[in-house]
Amino acid sequence: IKKITLNNNIDENLNQEIHASLKQFYNFNILSINSMEIISILDQFNMISSYKIKKEYPSTIKVEIKETNILAYYIDNNQKTFLGENGKKIKNEKLIIDDFPLIVGNVDIEKFLELKSKLINNGFNLNDFETFYFFKSKRWDLYYKNTQTLVKLPNDDLDISISLFKNIIQNSDVKNIKIIDLRIKNRITLL
Question: What is the Cα–Cα distance from 36 to 64, expressed in whole angstroms?
Answer without folding.
Answer: 15
